[in-house]
Amino acid sequence: MQNINLVNLYKKIYQIRKTQEILIEEYHPADEMRCPIHFCLGQELTPSVISQFLKKDDNILSHHRSHGYYLASGAPVEEMICEFYGKENGSNGGVAGSQELSNEKYNFYSGTILSGMFAMANGTAFADQYLSKNNISIAVIGDGGMEEGIVYETINLAAILNLPTIFICENNLFSVHSHIKTRNKITNFYKKAESFGIKSIKLNQENPLIFFQKFKNIFEYCKKNKKPIFVEVDTYRFGSHVGPENDLHMNYRSDIEIKKWRKKDPVLKIRNFLSKKITDLKIKKYEYEINNSIYKGIELAKKSNFPKFKKVLENNFQKNKYKKLKKINKPTFFDTKQNETKLNPY
After folding, report:
1. Strand partners, 142
2. Looking at the chain, which terminus has fewer C-beta neighbours within 10 angstroms, N or C?
3. What are the tens digits of pLDDT across the range 62-89?
């Protein structure tokens, strides 16, 4: 465990946690972030750990609970916050919001279509393989997404082509408000992935240092063997499925269950490990700097401009033609005067 940089690890997991907490406080009553947001309170360990192993040209393709993975990529927190406020200096020009959050400069992409980004990771992995680049793709999905057929087509293709991909399933037990046991007879998704002939493992968050070492081995396996690997992580979200409110009134889980998971909070565990290495004053200095950067991001977002409608439309179309593409069709628009097709009964 001597190779773990606890300072960097704690900085990242604290940044992810505190960004969520501060944005939750800001969401209401101001109502200036006018997009649905899926916060990742409780699920910060995996992105904070993988951030320690990512290389510059690796790709992350995430589900819609994506803030942790956005920050894991190294993308700026202020660009993410400005995106939530719908401002032109957001990571997607203010038109994507939380559920389609991306940052091309940092090879980070997420999407709201269930399991969609999971499948697209095969594309980035194949491109790197085809071009003989030593990069890997990280595909992130939730346990609800694992019930889509495209997931198994994706894993099967990755296995056949030996695509350098780390498939991560964050199993937080719930698909919206439905418990995993009401949806699946077999609840170990890593066993299903294993049936396609790829290495598959299951991890829990009990000991963040062991978790760190396991992921170090996972990255080394994928890089060295240039093969896919599937990782199921037992985790838990402390907050509601979507939005800043508490959802205990939905009665699909108990306050006792949430408190049980909060006692195993990896953020606090890593802070305790770090407090044995450096002074509490030093830790608080790091925390203050991170808090300050988040509040500055909010301040920037509030005073920034909304994107111009014309600019938004222009950004929807690629200006530069691919060099090998001889012809590109112009975008077609719906003709409101076209003839109506009237169907007769059989």
Report:
1. 170
2. C
3. 999 999 999 999 999 999 999 999 999 9
Contacts 24+ apart (CB under 8 A), 187-192: 188/232, 189/143, 189/146, 189/230, 189/232, 190/230, 190/231, 190/232, 192/146, 192/152
pLDDT for 5 equals 96
The pLDDT value given to residue 34: 87
pLDDT value of residue 310: 83
Residue 222's alpha-carbon distances to 62, 93, 138, 317, in angstroms, are 18, 34, 10, 35
**Strands 165-171 and 59-62: what pairing?**
unpaired
pLDDT of residue 267: 98
Strand residues in the chain grouped as ranges (E): 59-62, 102-103, 108-110, 137-142, 165-171, 174-175, 178-179, 199-204, 229-234
For domain 6-314, which architecture applies? 3-Layer(aba) Sandwich (3.40)
Angstrom distance (rounded) from CA 332 to CA 346: 33
End-to-end Cα spacing for the chain: 72
Token couple for 190: 């890593």
Q: What is the CA radius of gyration of the chain?
A: 21
Cα(72)–Cα(67) distance, integer angstroms: 9
Among candidate residues 72, 232, 237, 73, the one with its CA nearest the CA of residue 168:
232
pLDDT digits (tens, 9 = 90+) for 198-217: 999 999 999 999 999 999 99
Interacting residues of 330 by C-beta distance below 8 A, sequence separation 6+: none
Average pLDDT, the chain: 93
